Amino acid sequence: MAIPTPSKRKFLGRLSLPERNFVAEALRAETVGGVLLLVAAIAALIWANTLGSNYESVRGFHLGIGALGLDLSIQHWAADGLLAIFFFVAGIELKRELVAGELRDPKAAALPVIAAVCGMAVPALVYALVNISGNGSLDGWAVPTATDIAFALAVLAVIGTSLPSALRAFLLTLAVVDDLFAILIIAVFFTNSINFAALGGAVVGLAVFWLLLRKGVRGWYVYIPLALVIWGLMYNSGVHATIAGVAMGLMLRCHRTEGEEHSPGEHIEHLMRPVSAGLAVPLFALFSAGVGISGGTLADVFTRPETLGVVLGLVVGKAVGIFGGTWLAARFTKAELNDDLAWADVFAVASLAGIGFTVSLLIGELAFADQVQLTDEVKAAVLVGSLMAAVLASVLLKMRVRKYKALVEDEERDDDQDGIPDMYELDKPEYHLRMATIYENKAAEHRRLAQLAGAGRDDGDSPA
């Protein structure tokens, strides 16, 4: 008797229906936020290049409570305050991926995790090589390591390319893991001095936050004031305040119990994602992306090692790192690529991940905080590199757009109109019985119409 051999695991294969629905909803919100992000970035560039002094005075305007160490400029409120909301949502996304998404199975998680790690390591290496050879500063090695999922999806929305759900899920998982490592980089490498009293207070606040969640305490009037206290203490500790956001996001329960339609984490993410994508990130872009663009500035982007390293890291490093990491991981884990896709599709998505905007701008500000001129040049490099990555990805995706549209149509086909795509019902006998009935009814209708047409011709109704 022959022993059946186990089938090889498919890479970028069909998602489960719940996971597909979650990815579709999450990316729909991110796409809208990405379009707002593009609008905010363009507005910032126009504002900074037409009314530069006004732009600088507005974003440099200070407000807050000085006695609490929170007398900050509007630019810092956007970077340290509003981005905490962005990282809070990122923390929930990561928690959900770990307990119910692509990262819950270590074998399935290996590919996107390795791809994300390589997609951060190679850009950093490219930056380092460019600056070592050009006698530049290594301080900005982390700038080209980030991926902006909202901006990437906005590019997809603008060019009108439909991506199959598996590729979209891969891009989303990459971005989630990317955010995790970006948070670790900010916490480890961009914390100069620590106020241990404030940090201890923040840790106590997080412990109270976790305990209240465990006890099932409900009410925004409890958690929002506590979250603000934790954020304020984390900011005063010297650790970047966005760490508080991701820590609280990771504490939320993202698995459903019996009788629950949505877990608390999913519910809060659904409420906070529009605030993050529609308000927090666009406002950060408005007050961070405004840099003076001139012929000299653009020339410096390609001649100065720090800025050239950022551009090459985003455009070349991201694509090579993610694609190479994915290919090697698939080869050594013996995972077979989905028959409907090609490795060129993986490279196109890897190129799309080279759009590093929000977190790259943030890290650029942190890396060169004491060099204002270089900070602006690095921001310009982030904009140029992201634009080049977007154009490259758009060209590659357009080359396969017919294939993608056909795959998406197959995914969304619902001939029996029961609200569930047919591909998820092909293995159910009742589906085939239902479809046979539908086709038989259509055939009967066609026969009836043919008989009526024949009767009409017999009565002399048809033209001679």
Automatic annotation (TrEMBL):
Q: Which gene encodes it?
A: nhaA3
| InterPro entries linked to this entry | Na/H_antiporter_dom_sf (IPR023171), NhaA (IPR004670)
The protein's location, in the record's own words, is: Cell inner membrane; Cell membrane
Record bears the keyword Repeat: no
Protein function: Na(+)/H(+) antiporter that extrudes sodium in exchange for external protons.
Q: What is this protein called?
A: Na(+)/H(+) antiporter NhaA
Q: Which organism is it from?
A: Streptomyces violascens
The beginning of the lineage is: Bacteria, Bacillati, Actinomycetota, Actinomycetes, Kitasatosporales
Which reaction equations make up its catalytic activity?
Na(+)(in) + 2 H(+)(out) = Na(+)(out) + 2 H(+)(in)
Keyword list (alphabetical) reads:
Antiport, Cell membrane, Ion transport, Membrane, Sodium, Sodium transport, Transmembrane, Transmembrane helix, Transport
Stated membrane topology is: Multi-pass membrane protein
